[in-house]
Amino acid sequence: MSLVRLMVADDEPMVLAGLRTTLCRRSSIAVVAEASNGAQALALCRSVRPDVVLMDTSMPVMDGFQATEAICGPGGVPGVRIVMYGQSDSDEHLFRALRSGVLGFARKNASPDELINCIHRVHRGEAGLSPGAVTRLVSEFSRTCASAATSNGCLDVLSPRERDVLELLLRGLRYDEIAARLTLSKSTAKSHLRNICHKLDVRDRTELVIYAHEHGLPLHSRCS
């Protein structure tokens, strides 16, 4: 497992100290910087260039959402990936975080193993969302099928196999799980994702979740 150069941003000194102690026990994670507000997190990202930032949602000067938008947006800091965490993972916070550019979201009461797993998934470029969050996202866009007429036109550009892959991706399955479910190789599953992203004009798996929510994709299981 490759070493993750991590920056932690939180305005509570006790929380910072606890995270430092917890995360530094793992040889796979090195805490290379700490920030107490969003503006400081942005400045440190530019100078330290961590691999991943564990970003609190609520901080003074500039909150976690604003800092993430500045890091991930135009003129930001290329190559830095964000895991946002907070007391609440409400739908409002979750979708705002995804739109700001995060790849992962965790609650502050997550276990150390859950948090560390989320950090490593995001470091690999995968979505770091809890199964509960993925379920809620899928339920949410299932409830918005009123826009299905528009959505069906969007999905028409996908092949039946690509639609199968898309549904499993949005359920939160990993590439190896998708490959096993659909009797594909892992590389073929990844190739399908690239084709889906190209056809729907999104960048990655996280943007697919946002796209699904905003378009009310009427996905139905073909693979269970």
Structure description:
It is a single chain. The protein is α/β, with parallel strands linked by helices and 224 residues long. It has 2 domains: 126 residues, Response regulator (Rossmann fold, 3-Layer(aba) Sandwich); 80 residues, Arc Repressor Mutant, subunit A (Orthogonal Bundle). The protein has 11 helices and 5 strands. It has a 5-stranded parallel beta sheet with strand order 2-1-3-4-5, sandwiched between helices. The longest helix has 15 residues. The radius of gyration is 18 Å and the shape is globular. The C terminus is likely disordered.
Query: How large is the share of residues in beta strands?
Result: 5-15%
Number of strands: 5
Spatial sequence of strands, sheet with the most strands: 2-1-3-4-5
CATH architecture verdict of the largest domain: 3-Layer(aba) Sandwich
Task: Give the uncertain stretches in residue-range form.
Answer: 144-152, 218-224
Total number of helices: 11
Question: How far apart are the first and last residues' alpha carbons, in Å?
Answer: 32 Å
Overall radius of gyration? 18 Å
Strand-pairing-aware structural class: alpha/beta
Order of helices and strands: EHEHEHEHEHHHHHHH
What integer is the average pLDDT? 81
CATH class of the largest domain: Alpha Beta
When the domains are counted, the total is: 2
Output the CATH homologous superfamily of the largest domain. Answer: Response regulator
State the major sheet: 5 strands, parallel
Helical content (DSSP H or I, runs of 4+)? 40-55%
The CATH topology of the largest domain corresponds to Rossmann fold
Shape: globular
